[in-house]
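From the thread on structure requests for the teaching lab: each student submitted one protein with a one-line request. Submission from student K.M.:

"Model Nitroreductase domain-containing protein from Phaedon cochleariae, tokens only."
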Amino acid sequence: MLFEEYWPYFVVGLFLYVTVRVSYVFYKGLQKRNMGLDKKNEDFGKLNRTNQVNDVDMDKDSSSEEDGIIPALPSDLKHIPFNFEKIPEEIAIAKSEEFFEMMNKRRTVRQFSKQPVPLEIIHNIIKTAGTAPSGAHTEPWTYVLVSSPQTKQTIREIIEEEEEINYTRRMGKVWTTDLKPLRTNWVKEYLTDAPYLILVFRQTYSLRDNGNKKLHYYNEQSVSIATGFLLAAIQYAGLVSLTSTPLNCGPALRTLLERPTNEKLALLLPVGYPADDCLVPDLYRKSLKEILVEF
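Reply posted by the TA:
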């Protein structure tokens, strides 16, 4: 009876209670959120001030380092007139065509003759590779020339052991399938048949006279360019070669050849004359139209 008479008041009271309660909860949540934002802003301000201080300190350090930096090349490096002799255009065209025809005969050879090659030819070839450009003229290359039969045999054993694992486990079916038409596998007879092996190491850095590191900028690109010079010189001298990248053999070969840790094996090239029964894949090279974009 009492409820029936006063139920509207109960409903209104309940509504007011719920409204106040929800508003209180919302207000507390908003207050906590604002406090959190204030804390984050305060932390960010501290971090920002710290970073500014660190930036100043870094600037000071950079300034002090710059003040003490000595260039790898002499500060007073002399610049001299470039000795350039221009040749007539018709001769230049003929020479460029002649050079192309010579290089177009180059092939990757895997069957080598054991016929000896005069050492002077190999030295001239490596000297030619040494004329390649390099980042900041650091010349980040070392050419290790191997002619010792015992050392060549050890190199072959190291490489063939890893190559068998590469072909059977690491390289995968797609890679090994692509290599099948070239008739190559993990047996590398050319490593002991060729009279010379040239192992090209790239120097990641060297040491100055005071013992500090001398950075070798763009050492990978520089060594790649130098290897191109090397291949061209090999072809020009009437010899043949093969560019190989012994996978996972670098550390073992570096140790065998007593190279320092700042040198990384880039390429291995057997060099000599082709065997009498040498076969090469009948491949074609892309035409000028396929490789050139002109604007």
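TA comment: The mean pLDDT is 85. The longest helix spans residues 2-68.
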